[in-house]
Design brief:
Layout lengths: L1 H10 L28 E11 L2 E14 L3 E10 L6 E8 L5 E7 L3 E7 L2 E8 L4 E8 L5 E2 L3 H6 L9 E7 L7 E17 L2 E12 L6 E8 L5 E8 L2 E7 L2
Parallel strand pairs: 9-10
Antiparallel strand pairs: 1-2, 1-15, 2-3, 3-4, 4-5, 5-6, 6-7, 7-8, 10-11, 11-12, 12-13, 13-14, 14-15
Length: 245
């Protein structure tokens, strides 16, 4: 899903600190509370915000499932201007969220990643009809870049919480490998959404995928740890996702 945000920025025509003193979070340095992980389903509306007007551009369904060993995150994105749905599947170890598998299928490209001692798989660009074999060696532990928005929900969030996160991202047009996502700030806030006020952790993040030019802000229910809202700010523009059920 992280990659989805940046592709949408291009589709809509946009060129759209404090680090922790500790080592970046990774499966080997993981402070997440896995007991917070529960099976769930959520639906969100995805808007682009123009001045004060929200224009619906898609709908996002996220399913979280788990068994004794693995955690599955399946995201289906139905864009209003697309003829096919975007489907992402991420599998990680439930013990420490070490990545196992990721796939992403949409009308622009297909991608499959298998995480082991190497990252293997393929990237098929449907515009150019070029299929690239992926075979990447990594030298340090990391989370899947598509999973870290979920990881944030289960961290020991508190006022002023900051940290960095080691993530692996594959992009055939830019850099590939282990890069960094950053939690810039965390604060307790009240979110007024659909006439309801909810106490949330407001968590501001950025990452090397966008060269730290895009700011994502997650509004996470303090009690349930569900993401209720997600703002994506880039070059003075704004997209937002809001939970509907």
């Amino acid at each position: 899903m992280k990659t989805a945000f940046y592709i949408v920025l291009l589709t809509f025509g946009s060129s759209f600190l404090g680090y922790s003193q500790n080592q970046p979070l990774s499966p080997n340095n993981n402070t997440a509370d896995t007991s917070l992980v529960q099976p769930e389903s959520s639906n969100m509306n995805w808007y682009i915000v123009q001045d004060t007007v929200k224009v619906l551009i898609g709908k996002v369904n996220t399913q979280i499932k788990k068994d004794k060993k693995d955690l599955y995150v399946i995201t289906t994105v139905d864009m209003t201007q697309a003829t096919t749905k975007w489907v992402d599947t991420t599998i990680v170890s439930i013990k420490n969220f070490k990545p196992i598998y990721h796939s992403s299928y949409n009308q622009q490209r297909d991608m499959v990643l298998h995480f082991d001692s190497k990252v293997t798989g393929y990237y098929f660009d449907k515009k150019t009809d070029i299929k690239t074999t992926i075979n990447e060696t990594t030298t340090k532990p990391y989370f899947d870049s598509n999973f870290y928005p979920q990881l944030i929900r289960f961290l020991p969030l508190s006022e002023g919480y900051q940290n960095s996160i080691a993530i692996f991202d594959y992009n055939p047009t830019t850099s590939t490998g282990v890069i960094t996502a950053t939690i810039k700030n965390t604060e307790l806030a009240i979110l007024n959404l659909n006439g309801q006020e909810t106490k949330v952790w407001k968590v501001q993040t950025t990452d090397d995928i966008s060269k730290n030019q895009t700011i994502s802000t997650y509004y996470i229910d303090v009690t349930t740890r569900k993401i209720l809202k997600h703002d994506i700010a880039f070059n003075g523009r704004l997209m937002t996702m809001e939970i509907i059920d």
